[in-house]
Structures are given as C-alpha cells and as structure tokens.
Design goal:
By secondary structure, this protein is an alpha+beta fold. It has a single domain, classed as Immunoglobulin-like. Helix content is about 15%, strand content about 50%. The protein contains two helices and 13 strands, in the order H-E-E-E-E-E-E-H-E-E-E-E-E-E-E. Strands 5, 6, 7, 9, 10, 12 and 13 form a seven-stranded mixed sheet that branches. A four-stranded antiparallel sheet has the order 4-3-8-11, with no helix packed on it. The chain is globular, with a radius of gyration of 17 Å. It starts with a helix and ends with a strand.
Length: about 140
Amino acid sequence: MKKIVLPFLISLLLVGCNGKLGNNVVIEPRGLITANGERYVMMPFNYEWKENNMEIKPLRTPDRVKLADDFETLEAEKGDTLEFEIDKNPPSVEVIKENEDGTIERVEMKDNKIILPSKEGYYIYELKARWDKGKITFLFDVNVN
C-alpha cells in the first residue's frame, strides 16, 4: 500500500505546485548554464509569483547543500566563462558565490556571463532573478581545477 500511496502523494504535491490555478497558468522559469559548449539546468528554489489574483509561494526553503548535491557538479578550469539564460528575461539578476570556507561574495555578471575564480576549489553559486511580479533563485555548484 505504501508503494502506491507515496508516489500518489508526491504526484499530487507536484501537480499542486505547478503554478496552475483555474484557467490561469504560471510556468516556473527555467535557468540554464552553458559551460564548455554544454548546457545544464540549474536547480530552482524559492519561486514566488503574483499575477491575476493568484499567488505562488514556496512552502519551505530547501537546504542549499542538498540542492547542490542534486545538481551534477560542473567541472571547469580557472578563469572559464559561464553563460546564463533565464526564461522570462528577468530585469535584475544577482549572483552570489559561496567559497569552500563558507564565506560569501557577490559576483559581477556582464552580458549574462560570469568568470570563474582563478583559484582552484569547490564553489556554490546562487542566481537571484527578480521581476515585477515575482522572483526565483537558481543554484549550481562547480569544481574549479
């Protein structure tokens, strides 16, 4: 019985969180990274949107480390460039980098691109995209060699 109920509840939860309410449909934006000619989908979280008397908010904030574990860690070289594409073209995107020692820094993004550090290590990045009607945060991690 548990084998049937658990997948049903997960499906129900996913359908309930897909942003569809009545005839209004709000689709969560997707964030992509291009690195070394390959494209990757970033891990979305903290999605909020308010439009046409409908409001979508997260029930809880997921663990950043867990999200990073769910993302296939990028392998890159010092000074490589990463390019980003976010659906609905947000007018504001802030990039935050967490270093191995837990310190956090803001990273400059120009023309939807960032340059990776010149120091080897493991980094977790967050892209905080904002629109007039909402916001979303994307997360990914990278090993810089």
